[in-house]
Amino acid sequence: MSTAPVHLARGGVSLVLAGAHGIPRIVHWGAPLGDLDDAALTALAAARRPGASRSSYDGPRTTGLVPDGTRGYSGTPALSGLRVGGTTRAVAPSLVAWDVRADGEASVSCTSTDDEAGWSVRVALSLDAAGLLHARTSVTNTADGDLHLSSVLTALPVGAHATELLDLTGRWCKERTPQRHPWVQGTHRRDARHGRTGHDATLVMVAGTPGFTFGTGEVWAVHTAWSGNHTHYAERTPEGECLVGGGELLDPGEVVLSPGETYDAPHVLGSWSGSGLDAMSHRFHAHLRAVTPRSRTERPVIANSWEAVYFDHSLDRIAELADAAASVGVERFVLDDGWFLGRRDDTAGLGDWTVDPEVWPQGLGPLVDHVTGRGMEFGLWVEPEMVNLDSETARRHPERVLRGRSAVPPEWRQQQVLDLQDQGAYDDLRAALLALLDELDVAYLKWDHNRDLTDAVHDGRPAVHGQTRAFYRLLDELRSAHPALEVESCSSGGARVDAEVLSRTDRIWPSDTIDALERQHLQRWTSLLVPPELMGSHVGGPTAHTTGRTHSLRYRAATALLHWFGIEWDMSRLDEATLAELRAWIELHKRVRPLIGTGTLVHPDHPDPAVVVTGIVAEDRSEAWYVVATVAATSTQHPAPLRLTGLDPDRRYRLTEEMPRGPVGADLTGTWSVDGAELSGRVLATSGIALPVLDPEEARVLRLVAVG
Fold first, then answer.
1. Are the C-beta atoms of residues 502 and 531 closer than 8 Å to each other?
2. Which has the closest alpha carbon to 166: 214, 109, 128?
3. What would the pLDDT profile of 65-74 be if each residue is shown by its tens digit?
4. Are 531 and 285 in contact (CB under 8 A)?
5. CA distances from 466 to 227, 255, 429, 546 (A)
6. Catalytic residue at 448?
7. Is 512 labeled as catalytic in the residue annotation?
8. Which of 114, 337, 428, 448 does the annotation list as catalytic?
9. pTM
């Protein structure tokens, strides 16, 4: 590498790349450094050069852009693999003599080739307009023989003063549960081996200064943008390196490069913030809003049939539900599972994507006409990557069931996985889906994926990588044929949530639970990556089907208010008073909706963990809405004051409570004392406002409008 350092600066973030002994390394990623000339950058690089210790290598050892075991890095090597055949002597590459080239205003590509090992490696780095770091590593086989890749990871250095880690875990119906701990020496690694992103996927690996919150502390985060097996890790070595990184998890033989072939690892996205998790997430949100189709438009209110009728399908029954949905202001009606051949329960039919004539003797056309005739769009549930053994597809083509041995993998929801790398299976599936989309006026597919990939093998090789690529290809081809089609990524709830799938879909289903209490938590933590308008949030029945908890309509509706609002409830059985209340909440959502896809999501910190606050602030900070919800009994009878973040400190705001049917709750005054008050953004953020007395599992909605 040339000795001149490279400074990428954009979106309030700086990254400085400098060379030492022909090896580039990131000497700074984080806070903006201002305008630095070459002399200043050279001085910075020199000031960050390590020394040499006793009982170690005979000279300074630096961790380069690609942590490299051949040069003495004692942690996780970024690259590993094995050559089969050929005449090279070395196994792992030793990367020196890098070629570093500017690719644009704030991007650089670094390439090095080790002829002795037969590897050529390229690392591309760029900062987008929001300051999000995009990093990608590519490997090319430059020698004879096949190169079997074991791992291709991308690692980024963070400040040594980041001594606390946050990641997320979970399970079905309790996705994105936070866990925090000190960042000590060693490797903290979160592998996801589900064949899909996973209910327990961390989404982000965050390192930060001790005690960081949504609004305070310096934090660094990485996200691996991949929908198959993947990893995130944080590594602190005894030598002093502090790295966070990620990549695809590869099984032996899964990716084999013939001479001249290239493997592009998933993008690793990195976000830095000097003011807590909210500012960190805003960089991710800006990226997803830029790449996700139509995400900045106002999202239609959805009604989904699943928890209303399950498999109880008939034209009269579903039309009755659609009529009730239209009457309360729903704009898109989705027919869920149960419409296709042989699908009377969840044991049969997957793979046979034709309308069941026994249930729908005239096809779905009359229902689509009825729905669109009521002024709504029509959506349809599909689960294209799965197959039931009790299906015509499996009976005709048992070889299309994805498996590694003669026995099929364990059943999961009575289903197996369709091998999308089998060209016949792919072609038939693509044709069946296109036939539906060509025949029916379908605006939206709810695309489900209800099991892990187990013993996934194609042609004698591990198949998750190829299955994931085939899924991407199928989505791309369907959307190319039907550009207006919108797709929801659902995977038994929130098991396929990542930036790569969101570059091809319009919304994620964060969890199969619509219990409002659980949703308060999981929506909050899912938003570390996903902006609110891409996150479906539905009002279910009073008693949640997944937990048995019972909540008021105002709590359920307030929980969904600031996200992509939907309903999953048998509205055809509601009385007029309940329908009127639901209609009022939908009207309230439509008032907020213009801000949701363009505004800034904030989570004002509150000292009582029983109080969860979610806010949307308009892009020009002229208006803001906050939902204050309790998830337990408050620790004090009078909750601590709430400090509202995200506002313009120099503008004055008028505060009003916005609740259909008026204020309701534990406060005997019947009102919220802030109603009608006018205060500056600075006062609201520093002194705060009194909260009313709040019951457990109660919610209140506050609107602020700039008046000066």
1. no
2. 214
3. 999 888 878 8
4. yes
5. 11, 9, 16, 34
6. yes
7. yes
8. 448
9. 0.97
